[in-house]
Amino acid sequence: xxxxxxxxxxxxxxxxxxxxxxxxxxxxxxxxxxxxxxxxxxxxxxxxxxxxxxxxxxxxxxxxxxxxxxxxxxxxxxxxxxxxxxxxxxxxxxxxxxxxxxxxxxxxxxxxxxxxxxxxxxxxxxxxxxxxxxxxxxxxxxxxxxxxxxxxxxxxxxxxxxxxxxxxxxxxxxxxxxxxxxxxxxxxxxxxxxxxxxxxxxxxxxxxxxxxxxxxxxxxxxxxxxxxxxxxxxxxxxxxxxxxxxxxxxxxxxxxxxxxxxxxxxxxxxxxxxxxxxxxxxxxxxxxxxxxxxxxxxxxxxxxxxxxxxxxx
Length: 313
Prior knowledge:
single chain, alpha/beta, TIM Barrel
């Protein structure tokens, strides 16, 4: 398929694997890129030397384009960006911050830049900053989320009207049918995170993967809105946060509850009670761990089949 996203990134399918902390290292990114999508290394959980190692291993494992996701709130942001430029990473996805800070420098180095947003105002600011595309992430997404709680169904059409650059839909997309819906709403491609956590190549702990497959409707909720909103599987840690928020806890108390390395404890080390378990609603009903390439091709084939059925109805 040729469209603005596939031509921008030089990929076969307009399917992007999200750069998720503790889950998307070089193995997952290279597997998705080799399968024809765009794989992304999630740098938010990596020290600078670890990121450099993952970039080099990814380059050795695939000849196809890949990207690195960089949360702008990351403490060693400058070191990460210097590594990305020095290693000639072709594409960078920025999130959780001002895209104007690094976009020009990255583009001067020949790097394509994509920024993640959750509302119209930041979409327009990202376009003004000169990014090549944006990811419009709806309320259904896992990880850090928009405070407005705008669903993907509502977000994509208004973002499509607000900007001229390519729009990549994210949030609750885990099947070919949901991909088709996003494209019908005006997206040029989709970014999928949670579904790829349930891949063989994901670095998520097996406990976390198994917990995801047990999680049904209503098993997740948006939390920590006074800090950085995140969608979590309901567990002991989530309940502690929910109770604190219900009694009006402030930033200081919530920060103390969160502490350090909660996401690592849950997603990477497999502590299902005390850990932070970030996941989106798009995995509801997914009960199988598969190779990343099979996941991508299953989504694409279902997209094509659903598109044909819709045209014939």
